[in-house]
Write a structure and sequence with these properties.
alpha+beta; Alpha-Beta Plaits; 3 domains; 4-stranded mixed β-sheet
Length: about 375
């Protein structure tokens, strides 16, 4: 699902003529359960009349005597987020939407809150991956080069188990604020991609993006985020290398490839750090102790099994988690619903888990 334009909200143009009487307008308001009606002169919007204005007016009065002029009007091409900012800055509760000279309907602040709740993470205030897809595709279509920085928190699942989800949520909020401090709105976008995953997409030159990725890891170590290890985040980076114009490109597929490549790189780095953290004496001891049972070595032939599948279907952006076992190892994949069906989100979460189980075999 892409971030919606106002034209996609399914607005209904409830309206009345300025020369209609108030009692007729009241019937329309009650019948449509509307908070306000557009007032049209022919096809042209000239004002609004609210339920309150009608309730306090004489039933024999004409609408033109009680209506308010349409001083603030939104264009159908505006994004929901743009209108939300516009209404907040101007203290507006109701705004009519037009497409050219055609009246489309009226948007309320309540409508926008509900819509934004579906597109933005209420915990961190960041957009979900749907906005990344729209922004990324638009950037690629414009011919600009895009770099994706995939940020995956280290051992966050274990952290949640030890300290609880309340403390875990605080960490996510802090990490989001830390990453947000690097965002230049003119060329960057930060989204919460999954449970403990963030994506920082940028139009900056590749060398600058690489420097950013390094700062994300080193800077977060200095940030006031509790940790029991010396590392908090594994970062993968993809894109920013193109030197020729794209031809006959499927832009969404190109963006998905960048995201998947950056995700695989972050997973490999996380695994390398975990292996490096194992004491060398432990590895040597396992090999030298007489009669000791060698630690299992995961291979592509190790049996796979599904341990757990959880799909949160209580909200549009609930998280779907799939946990697989491979030999003695457990591998998880997390996918935001983002308006997808439960079956599709389970398939994508499973693909992520398989990606992590078999990184050498490429994307599934």
């Amino acid at each position: 699902m892409n971030v919606k334009r106002l034209s996609e909200l399914g607005l209904v143009p409830h309206w009345v003529s300025p020369r209609h009487r108030v009692d007729s307008a009241v019937i329309l308001v009650e019948g449509h359960r509307a908070r306000a009606l557009g007032v049209l002169e022919g096809y042209r919007l000239v004002g609004l009349v609210t339920r309150l204005e009608l309730a306090t007016a004489s039933k024999d009065a004409y609408v033109e005597t009680v209506m308010s002029p349409a001083r603030f009007v939104a264009e159908a091409t505006w994004s929901v987020r743009k209108l939300a900012g516009y209404m907040s800055e101007n203290g507006l509760d109701l705004v009519p939407v037009v497409e050219g000279d055609r009246f489309l309907g009226i948007v309320s602040a309540t409508d926008l809150l509900e819509e934004l709740g579906r597109s933005y993470d209420p915990l961190t205030g960041l957009a979900w991956s749907d906005e990344l897809r729209q922004w990324g595709v638009e950037s690629l279509k414009a011919g600009t080069e895009l770099t994706v920085i995939f940020c995956d928190l280290d051992e966050f699942g274990e952290y949640n188990k030890r300290y609880g989800h309340v403390i875990g949520d605080r960490v996510l909020v802090q990490v989001a604020a830390f990453l947000q401090s690097y965002v230049d709105p003119a060329r960057d976008l930060l989204v919460r991609y999954g449970g403990d995953e963030f994506v920082f997409a940028t139009l900056r030159p590749r060398p600058e993006a690489v420097q950013l990725a390094e700062e994300f890891q080193s800077g977060l170590l200095l940030h006031d985020v509790p940790t029991e290890s010396g590392s908090l985040m594994s970062v993968g980076i993809a894109g920013g290398r193109r030197t020729v114009e794209r031809e006959n490109v499927h832009f969404m597929a190109t963006l998905d490839n960048l995201i998947n490549t950056a995700s695989r790189e972050s997973t490999l780095k996380k695994r390398e750090k975990a292996q490096a953290a194992r004491p060398s004496s432990q590895l040597e001891g396992e090999a030298q102790t007489p009669g000791a049972t060698p630690a299992p070595i995961p291979t592509a032939k190790a049996p796979m099994a599904v341990v757990e599948v959880h799909a949160d279907d209580t909200q549009v952006h609930g998280l779907t988690t799939v946990i697989l076992s491979r030999g003695d190892a457990l591998i998880s994949g997390v996918q935001s619903r983002s308006g997808r069906s439960a079956v599709e989100s389970i398939a994508l979460a499973t693909a992520k888990a398989l990606d992590r189980a078999f990184p050498a075999f490429g994307s599934w």
